Amino acid sequence: MSDSDTSCDIVGIGNAIVDIISHEAEDFLSRHHLVKNSMSLVDEETALAIYKEMHPAIQASGGSAANTMAGIALLGASPGYIGKVKDDELGKFFVHDIEAIGVNHLVKPTSSGPPTARSMVLVTPDGSRTMNTYLGASSTLYADEINHDAVASADFLYCEGYIWDIETTKKAIRLAISIAKEAGNKVSFTLSDTFCVERHHQEWLELISGPVDVLFGNEAEFLALSGCPTLEGAIDWIRGKVEIACITEAQNGSTIVTTGHTIGIDPHQVDKVVDSTGAGDLYASGFLYGLIKGLDLKTCGEIGSLAAAEVISHTGARPQASLQEIISSELKI
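^ thats the sequence. predicted structure below, dont judge the formating
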């Protein structure tokens, strides 16, 4: 690709997934022995078995980092995305969706190997989502498919914790991090899920003490990472380990932690939480957009809160209203 093809404010890297979302009763989870509000990796056979029992579903492009890059594009910045799909029906759907939003998809779809990844997302009446993910083609992202020029030229790299579950993709993301740091760029990372934190605890402790500048996660993930029983303890623990830590706390808003400051961000109220899928992803969109634009941290957090509020007010992890209009109206930006 030419330089013009790879000119991005930020590049995200993660599992390229199509979400298949349905609303289900609590007993659906118990029948399938699923842990509510978590992400579990499943094989293709299990994914099909869950799909067969689901109520009529909505199909939407997803994947944590892809959702974040989509939000950043809708806010008005220029993101790129590294995530692998197969050249099949779901893969074409994914690429069309992300490029139509304004994200530069930086990995050529593969014509061989497993099919495009999909996640069976089960939304219970309280808005909680339980994800059952078959990684498929996304697990075959190789280091030589990382677009060096795009990563080096972007001011920010955003890394999805879920990608750490496969050794092949872990090597790819480590390469992307090293390219970003060598170019003097900022590296941001999202913890993704408490199970991910537990699986990769020691490696992630080393990661956040090393190349990571901006760390995202929810309260439960920060408690699991820090080993602290309270949020206050986790805040004290993370302070100084990264340049900026963003801790989301659902209806309690979020907390931004730097070496010298703790900034509380109020939640933006919604009439009803329809589907919490993508709330953390879109919070990261808003916060990173603010950083890209050089805004102060409190404003970054407020943009994140507004973007998260929009996405939980409907089914699916991609915004349906104009984020630019919302931010302009609420924050006069």
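The two ends are 34 Å apart (CA to CA).
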